[in-house]
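In these records, each integer encodes one residue's backbone shape. Here is one protein:

___
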Amino acid sequence: MAKPIKTRKRILDKTKTKEERRRDGIRDFTDFYRQNPHRCVSTHFQCTSFTWWQDLIFYLMFKSTVFFGIMTRGIGKSFEIGWFCVVFCCIMPRSRIVIASGTRSQARLIVTQKILGEIYNRYPKVRQEIDIKNSSVAQNNTYVKFWNGSEVVVVTGGDSSRGNYLIFATFKLPLQTEMFDKKSRKKTGKLKCQSEWKAKLKNLVTRRA
């Protein structure tokens, strides 16, 4: 995992004012974090719980125009999506991220449980970036506002909404047997054909092997 980097104090340039030195430092660190977004999580926000492959996925999510990931359950997908929204909105001012899913309640969990829940409560520097008073966790109107003008909006998968980055989170891909069960329900109204379909699939796999 990415460890927090050690920084050194610069030689004080007395020809510049304190505000000019502050702006130069913000510009340099912003440029560094845009090139290395996983370092922003570990160094600026002090989150060191990412594994090496989560760092790689996080890096590719920033560098790729279109990122598509198929992952199993229980490996921190929502946690990583929540961190992506926070980091992207912090280092890209006035940006808009749209989170969509099959249902609005499913996409809403990214905001309520991760961004404004686990991440907001655990890391103090995240609380400095989020405008919690102007954010909303209402059932039909869920969004997160940042002090730099960025926002994270939750919509349903079928809604038409624009943003700098569109995230389709946690869509369930049905198994082939489930599709067969649905077809058998329409024809017979019962699940007595389920064992027959599974036997046919098993025979098909053994023949191909």
DSSP finds eight helices and five strands in the chain. The CA atoms of residues 38 and 55 lie 6 Å apart.
